[in-house]
Amino acid sequence: MEANDKSNLPWHLGVYDAHCHPTDTISTLDEVANMKASGLTIMASRDEDQDLMRQAANKFRPPRLVPSFGWHPWFSHQIYDDRAIEVDQTPGKSLHYKSVLSPTPKDDQEFVAALPEPRALSEVLAHVRSNLDDHRLALVGEIGLDRSFRLPTQWNPVDQDKRNPKLTPGGREGRRLSPYRVRLDHQRMLFKAQLNLAGELQRAVSVHGVAAHGVVLDTLRECWSGHERKIQSRRARKKAAHSANTENSGSSVSTETEKEVSEASASKPYPPRVCLHSYSGPPDCLRQYLDPTVPAIFFFSFSCLVNFSLAASKAVDVIKSVPNDRLLVESDLHGAGKDMDDLLEQVVRKVCEIKKWSLEDGVQQLASNWRHFIYGSSEMGTT
Predict the structure, then answer these.
(1) Which residues pair with 177 in a beta bridge?
(2) Are 296 and 264 in contact (CB under 8 A)?
(3) What is the C-alpha separation between 180 and 40, in angstroms, rounded?
(4) Of the candidates 179, 150, 175, which has an alpha carbon nearest to the alpha carbon of residue 160?
(5) Bridge pairing between strands 101-102 and 79-80
(6) Measured CA angle at 331 (ends 174, 283), to 5 deg
(7) Residue 335 in 3-state DSSP?
């Protein structure tokens, strides 16, 4: 059966959303129970939704809902790096925002005054760590870098009185955009700190990268520098296999297996698995992430809202180039329910058509990939 036919999507085989934001519209969370999707990977992004994520995670268990805790680059300006300063050197609010925003808002005191009091990085990371400790399958996300976004303007009293109470505070909510961006070096500081935390706890991450693909890769490389995989030559592999066969079996094999398991679960400065969500980089960049020396496993997720809204032809070329076992799909939607199911079905059908998969084969492959990303093995989470 061709993937672009009108047959029903085999939801019963398991359709999984690799990246979404239902806690942005918390009133929709109860709809998760009624959705066709088998599992949602939901993202936190800022101070206002970290505890909402905990509530969601306590209400729905994996695989129905897999929580993520972390800070999105759009909110990175709200954090200052306190790791190398004394308590009495904590920057004041005005000084902090003037140092991390570009252009410097030196003549816009009203804008700065409306921003929240900045929080210490150590406090933010401790909060994320605590949530991760309480949810053993939780990811770190959404984290990353974004060169193009600008901060929204401050609320005026009239608009604030009219804001939708169903929406979680802290987002843009239709406000005009200011001229201010967060300096990339400040974004990188937070991004790398969260990558290191994910590596320490060996959690997967969901990464946002807009107009910053090279810097995202460079930051990830800094994390795994010195931990690259060593690629044996064919001759060395044959020699190792021969030595293993000639040794006494049993305890030696068991010891080697235990060593591999121990090394895989040990803390490292980089995360074990990374999803580049709504991936918009060129096909050529894929080779750098998929290089056999890279110690992390990379997945590439695609959404209709981002990848098929403008540059659809680019997305087609990239999806064709992504290995079958590294593809994920997502809605990237800010509310649970029928609309999220509909977007998932649309992107699954598009991916299956591009990959020339039948719907059944495609759904099964994508489900296997999602389990690998979440659990570290495509065989886990199937019962």
Answers:
(1) 152
(2) no
(3) 33
(4) 175
(5) unpaired
(6) 105
(7) coil
Number of Cβ within 10 Å of residue 212's Cβ equals 22
Instruction: Please tell me whether residue 176 adopts helix, strand or coil conformation.
Output: coil
Q: What is the mean pLDDT of residues 163-169?
A: 91
Name the 3-class secondary structure at 136.
Answer: coil
Encode pLDDT of 247-294 as tens digits: 544 444 344 444 444 556 789 999 999 999 999 998 989 999 999 999
In sequence order, the β-bridge partners of residue 91 are none
Helix (H) or strand (E) holding 367: helix 359-375
Rounded distance between C-alpha atoms, residue 250 and residue 235, angstroms: 25
Taking phi over 0 as left and psi of -120 to 50 as alpha, with beta for the rest, 226 belongs to left
Q: Which residues contact 207 (CB under 8 A, 6 or more apart)?
A: 141, 142, 143, 144, 216, 274, 275, 276, 277
CB atoms inside a 10 Å sphere around CB 8: 8
**Tokens in use for 201?**
């706890």
In which element (H, E) is residue 252 found?
Answer: helix 251-265
Contacts of 376 (CB under 8 A, 6+ apart): 204, 264, 272, 273
Across the beta sheet with 297-302, what order do the strands follow?
A: 16-20, 39-42, 65-69, 139-146, 205-210, 273-276, 297-302, 327-329
Spell out the long-range contacts of 107-115 with Cβ–Cβ below 8 A and sequence spacing 24 or more.
Answer: 110/154, 111/153, 111/154, 111/178, 111/180, 114/154, 114/155, 115/77, 115/78, 115/154
* Beta carbons within 8 Å of 96's beta carbon, 6+ residues apart: 80, 118
Helix axes 121-134, 47-59, angle to 10 degrees: 10
Interatomic CA distance for residues 169 and 152, integer angstroms: 13
Measure Cα distances from 330 to 92, 266, 304, 316, 345 in Å: 40, 30, 8, 16, 10
- The dihedral through the CA atoms of 173, 179, 183, 188 has a sign that is positive
Q: Helix axis angle, 359-375 relative to 338-355, nearest 10°?
A: 110
State pTM to two decimals.
0.91
Confidence band for 95, pLDDT divided at 50, 70 and 90: very high
